[in-house]
Amino acid sequence: MNKLDDNCIFCKIIKNEIPSITVYEDDQVKAFLDISQVTPGHTLVIPKTHVENIFEYNDKLAAAVFAKIPMIAKAIKSSNPDIKGMNICQNNGALAYQSVMHSHIHLVPRYSNDDGFSMTWADNTNNYTSEQLQTIANAIKDNVEE
Ligand code: AMP
Ligand code: ZN
């Protein structure tokens, strides 16, 4: 049973209360053009149930949503011969740049180095000992709940 939130803009899109330009949908997933079009074809994939972020997914919902990403990515790529690559990203939490609190996955087709999309990654390779890395890994491992 899909649960929707009356105050959520993406739930309103699911209910067709506000318009969207759909590229794919099934019972559990909807994919539509992001209004900001960072690059042409920029698409959002959302679950048709209101979950705020990745931390609220269970395996079943993840299987329904993430299984569709390659199919939608391939459709976007095939739609335009100028697409040379694609960034797929999901922001979880305001600190991580999430602005709409209904989980969504961005598919951003890439055309060139200066097509409007960029990411910055710090490189801290030399700032960690293997012991420090192992300590971090152990803390994560201790919290895996299958
Ligand atoms: P994020 O910052 O990861 O939460 O991304 C939210 C995205 O939703 C932004 O890229 C917005 O452009 C997009 N967005 C917000 N409202 C709409 C809308 N009504 N239709 C399509 N995309 C939207
Ligand atoms: Zn919602």
Taken in chain order, the helices and strands follow as HEEEHHEEH
Q: Which cofactors or ions or other ligands sit in this model? A: adenosine monophosphate, zinc ion
| Assigned CATH class | Alpha Beta
**Cα-to-Cα separation, first versus last residue:** 23 Å
CATH superfamily: HIT-like
Range of strand content: 15-25%
Count structural domains: 1
Mean pLDDT score: 97
- Content-based structural category: alpha+beta
CATH topology annotation: HIT family, subunit A
Tell me the overall shape. globular
**Radius of gyration, taken over Cα atoms and rounded to an integer in Å:** 18 Å
Q: Segments where pLDDT lies below 50 for 5+ residues?
A: none
What does this structure look like?
By secondary structure, the chain is an alpha+beta fold. The protein has a single domain, classed as HIT-like (HIT family, subunit A), CATH 3.30.428. The protein is 25% helix and 17% strand. The protein contains 4 helices and 5 strands. It has helices at 9-14, 59-66, 69-78, 130-141, and strands at 22-25, 29-33, 43-47, 85-89, 105-110. The protein has a 5-stranded antiparallel beta sheet, with helices on one face. The longest helix is centred in the C-terminal third of the chain and has 12 residues, at 130-141. It is globular. It starts with 8 loop residues before the first helix and ends in a 5-residue tail after the last helix. The mean pLDDT is 97.
